[in-house]
Design brief:
By secondary structure, this protein is an alpha/beta fold. Helix content is 28%, strand content 14%. The longest helix is centred in the last third of the chain and has 18 residues, at 156-173. The radius of gyration is 17 Å and the shape is globular. The structure holds zinc ion (ZN). This is N-acetylmuramoyl-L-alanine amidase.
């Protein structure tokens, strides 16, 4: 078992604490979901080097050998989701969308459409919409993208650690498997990212 200390760090002999203040952007007031990513970098060190500069990042990083690093406090927001979220109602059940609004949005050009969809979705609350930076924890798995649709396979050791980590976070934040998303599900990303991640 693990626990979350007052600094928002997950205390367990399975977690190596390596916090980067530069990727923390204000307070995270509640955790409703987990988002699984791949780094598009060949090693953990490449990602750590990037985290020294202010910018995007995630709360955890799982190396290819299964080592789990916590890279940001669970009480702080990280920029891991991206600027534009997809529409959950369109992806899951079109009938639950506001059809008049959707009809209006779908007359727009693609660029205008994804911006309008994002604004429309952000007016909803989770779980009616996909998670955003202000209500989710990001978990990165070390892995390089191979081409426009594929990433390196997640290793067995990574999946084993991911399962352990996700189960701990379910308990600490009262979540279930329906609250875990692959990054490309929720924003416009390489569809292969985290496609071979398995957490249940
Ligand atoms: Zn990602």
């Amino acid at each position: 078992m693990s626990f979350v200390n007052s600094d928002g760090m997950l205390i367990s002999d399975k977690v190596i604490l390596r916090r980067f203040n530069a990727i923390e952007h204000g307070d995270l007031h509640g955790v409703q979901a987990l988002v699984v990513h791949q780094t598009d970098a060949p090693t953990a060190q490449h990602t750590f080097n990037g985290y020294l500069a202010k910018g995007s990042g995630a709360h955890f990083l799982i190396d290819k050998n299964g080592f789990v690093y916590q890279t940001a406090s669970l009480k702080k927001r990280c920029y891991h989701v991206g600027k534009l979220i997809r529409s959950k109602c369109l992806a899951i059940d079109k009938k639950t969308c506001d059809s008049a609004q959707m009809a209006r949005i779908q007359t727009l050009s693609w660029t205008a459409q994804i911006k309008a969809l994002d604004a429309h979705e952000r007016a909803k609350s989770y779980p009616e919409r996909y998670p955003v930076n202000s209500d989710s924890i990001g978990i990165e798995l070390v892995g390089k993208h191979l081409d426009t649709s594929r990433y390196e396979s997640v290793t067995a050791a990574q999946n084993q650690s991911l399962q352990w980590l996700v189960n701990e976070l379910y308990v600490h934040f009262n979540l279930s498997s329906g609250d875990v998303y692959r990054h490309p599900q929720i924003s416009y990303k390489n569809p292969g990212e985290a496609s071979s991640a398995v957490w249940e």
